[in-house]
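Re: your question from the hallway

Yes, I did run it. Sequences:
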Amino acid sequence: MKDAPVMVKADGVRKHFGRLEVLRGIDLQVRSGEVMCIIGPSGSGKSTFLRCINHLEKVDGGRLTVDGHLVGYREHAGRLHELKDREVCQRRAEIGMVFQHFHLFPHITALENVAVGPVRVKRQPRDRAAARARELLGQVGLADKADCYPKQLSGGQQQRVAIARALSMEPKLMLFDEPTSALDPELVGDVLEVMRNLAGQGMTMVVVTHEMGFAREVGDQLVFMDEGLVVESGRPRDVLANPAEERTRQFLSRIL
Amino acid sequence: MTAPTEATTVVPVRHPGRWVGTAIVIVLAVMLVHSLFFSHVERSGKRQPRFEWAVIRHYFFSSEILKGLQVTIEVTLVAMAAGILLGVLLAVMRLSPNPIVSGSAWGYVWFFRGTPVLVQLLFWYNAAYIFPVFSLGIPFGPAFFHLNLNSTFTPFVVASVGLGLNEGAYMSEIVRAGILSVDEGQTEAAQSLGMNRLQNLRHVVLPQAMRVIIPPTGNETISMLKTSALAAEVTLGELLFKAQSIYSQSFQPIPLLMVASFWYLIVTTVMTMGQFYIERHFARGSARQLPPTPFERFKRGIQIRPTIGPFGHGGLS
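Structure:
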């Protein structure tokens, strides 16, 4: 994996909301097929960084590239041109995202949730998208829930539908924003299992999480963020077992 | 603080007020029925029924009144359809990031909500005085298309345009409230799938906003049915206009106004029932179980009835 192409590369990425600096120069790199887990206290900017990757937030400074393309801009003759809405949408369609609170579309069934992207964005024929959606629901263990509305599913089931929905666009990169934080403890396992399988299939993943067991077992890299900076990063085993930085040590002692 | 066991007798709360209230309502109802159906008055020396039900019956299904009813329903539907389309357009414009677009929508709502609808109707009725010809073409240059307003602005067109443009302003606020009621996470999820602004609006936000939009829209439609009576002022032959033109010759205003009122009541009742089913349709996915239709409730009511008296579980006690 050492020489796999770089999927996400951040160079001094900055972001502020008004006067509040949320990201103060993030440097990191995710190679194709890698799983990067990001941990850190709340307010450390980890979710904001994740949202920058698919341009749900605009980067204010530094360079952030996905698969070699600058996020939100095109470089031409030494100048950055903001992308048109259409181009932003095209880039987003190639990146899957899973949210802490699922954000399934409540007015359509699980199957329609998984088929709506391919039908509306990729203009795939309905029956083909529906067949693929059934396949994906099977992959996340919910083949029998295809016709349920999101409200009729448990949190864990909803999150697995949300993962299937993100996969329906055949993304080259998956972003997970605290995917298990809103779940009852006994439902976390099923969601992590799906994510573990996905990693096993070679999906490139960036996961903001508090699940240290998952990070240790599945992650290729672990990044600890605090106050808008990457404090420490490395192999999960090393970072978790002997953190080099005092702040990492404090954080880990509080949550483990 | 022991729970009632089988040995204890439970004395329900007494409701003496309900007995008094029931008595008063019964007396008032009897007075109303008497006044409506059995009382008489002297009119120019002749003893006549207070309410001339025979006259009401005579005109209720007369072709003139039915024609007026048809026009009322038509103008209501056309104006409401125009209002809803315009309302969605204006609401989307209001929420546009482009300040010129959102500003124009704001200005439109400001103007049409700020002037009386009757004045607007009279304005459109007389519009041909200021703009005898409506042309499409290059501004201050040649025109490609002419419309003679004197001949196209019939009373029906005036009423539909006037009421529709006014309704658009109100509908836009209703639609905007509906759009704003949808959680932002829905838009983010749609964006992360690569949907653009319009796809997000059309397939994700608006269907969910409908739950908030439908009830006030039903209200607006019922309100429009009655507001359309203002079109009598611009000589549109709708229900009130027909009733007025009949009683201007027969000199029986009250019976004919009652004929019109009964028809308005009947149509609003039908609309209210229609609204229930539309709301039920858009409640899919938001509730675990859909609310029962009146028929289902009726069926269930028959089964439960034996345990519940007309005043609830306690009955009259």
